[in-house]
Amino acid sequence: MAGMAGERVGLVLDAWVKARAPVNIALIKYWGKAPSSLPEDANLPAVPSLSLSLAGLFTETWARFAPDAERDTIRLGGRPLLPEEMRRAVALLDRIRAVTEVASPFEIITVNHVPTAAGLASSASGMAALAAAAGRCAGLDPSVPDDLGLLSEIARIGSGSASRSVYGGWVAWEGRRAHPVAPRDHLPIAVVVAVVGRGRKAVGSRDAMNHTARTSPYYAGWVQQAHEGFADALAALAARDHARLFAAMERSTWRMHASAMAADPPVFYWQPASVAVLREVAAMRADGILCGATLDAGPHVKVFCDPRDSEAVSRRLTTVPGVEDIIETGPGSGLEMQVGDEPSVGGNDDSQESA
Ligand code: DP6
Q1: CA distances to 82, 209, 246 from 31, in Å
Q2: Is residue 6 one of the residues assigned to a domain?
Q3: Which of 38, 166, 311, 354 has the highest CB neighbour number within 10 Å of its CB?
Q4: Residues 233, 187 contacting (CB under 8 angstroms)
Q5: pTM of the model
Q6: Beta-carbon contacts of residue 224 (< 8 Å; ≥ 6 apart)
Q7: How far is Cα 125 from Cα 27, in angstroms, rounded to an integer?
Q8: Tens digit of pLDDT for each residue in 19-71?
Q9: For ligand 1, is residue 161 a contact (CB within 6 Å)?
Q10: Which of 44, 20, 33 is nearest to 219 (CA)?
């Protein structure tokens, strides 16, 4: 193959590789980047984060080498990527080429299996699936723990939260790569997403966190308290203490949003219905249902609870004015790989969103 730098065990030369990666939700939030200048240092976090990978919400990506092509081609649900999406994806693929010393362009086909209105960003699952599929073509083997760690590091270059989506269950991310902290069955958990408001697309998390870091007087406080919150959540998880874990999640959420709301001009993601859902969560707690809420860079509220309560939680959230949809999910597994799987898609479905 043209452009190959010698033989590497495990290169996939003439076949597609398929990777499936889960969406994840952060309980302890990544919000802010450490300063960096090298491309491989992109999206190093200013704060540690803790997430849960989710079941049934994922991205599927096929990759193969395209040695005769001039550059990488990527189609998302049948459409080319937007310029900014493409820039991030190519930075990730460049990193794979650099670490594996393979020079060939890639052909990529990708599909998000995340309901369009879910309010769950698919950039994390998308960049993780991209790293895994293209990385496996280039000889990185996700079944080898150190290669999987390297794929986490490479996925991070596309999007910080993607570093966590190469693993299933409970995942921590500090520094260059994420690492698994507990398997998906460690703690019985259900996640009920209350989808609210489909108005104007919110400011993306990347721009918003950079703007917060530049202009919010509360950003320094956010960074300063983050390690303590992270350690508290890890201890709660280890002790299987739902109440303590939910409390740590809510503190991280309010503090992240407070730092963003104090930016100039403010970044304000909540809508009236978001606040109505948060009031209902407080009411459910007062009624003895153990649950906690979190929001990311959008108005949707994700409610964590015991699976035995998920039906009651869903029912109560459905009655909140402004809630348009409810999605029930829970802990999911990590990467799934298949070598030699032909893309089952590639047509023209332009309903896909990347983030
Ligand atoms: C609020 O990973 O989307 O969801 O690294 O700039 O691509 P970039 O940002 P991204 O930020 C996610 C922010 C968050 C919290 C979290 O997932 O930890």
Answers
A1: 24, 6, 19
A2: no
A3: 166
A4: no
A5: 0.94
A6: none
A7: 17
A8: 999 999 999 999 999 999 999 999 999 999 999 999 999 999 999 999 999 99
A9: yes
A10: 33
Counting the structural domains of the chain, the total is: 2
Q: Which of 23-37, 72-86, 252-266, 341-355 has the lowest mean pLDDT?
A: 341-355
**Structural domain that includes position 253:** 190-329
27/172 same-domain check = yes
95 and 28 in a common domain: yes
Question: Which CATH number do you get for residue 305?
Answer: 3.30.70.890
Q: Is residue 12 part of a domain?
A: no
Atom 11 (ligand 1): residue with closest C-alpha?
205
- Ligand 1 site-directed mutation target among 157, 161, 171, 203, most atoms within 8 Å of CB: 161
Helices (H) and strands (E) in the chain, counts: 8, 12
Atom of ligand 1 nearest to the CA of 173: 18
Is ligand 1 within 6 A of the CB of residue 205?
yes
At residue 201, the pLDDT reads: 67
Q: Which residue has the tokens 């963003």?
A: 260
Is residue 145 assigned to a domain? yes
Is pLDDT of 350 > 60? no
Burial 207-236 (b: 16+ CB within 10 A, else e): ebbebbbeebebbeebbeebeebbebbbeb
> How close is the Cα of 319 to the center of ligand 1, in Å?
30
Q: With contact defined as beta carbons under 8 Å apart, do 323 and 300 qualify?
A: no
Give the Cα separation of 118 and 296 in Å (integer): 12
Q: Strand (E) positions, the chain?
A: 17-28, 49-65, 73-76, 79-80, 106-113, 170-174, 177-182, 190-196, 291-294, 301-305, 323-329, 336-339
Q: Are 280 and 316 in contact (CB under 8 A)?
A: yes
Asked whether 65 and 137 are in contact (CB, 8 A), the reply is yes
Q: How far lies 153's CA from each of 39, 45, 124, 317, 349, in Å? A: 12, 12, 13, 37, 30
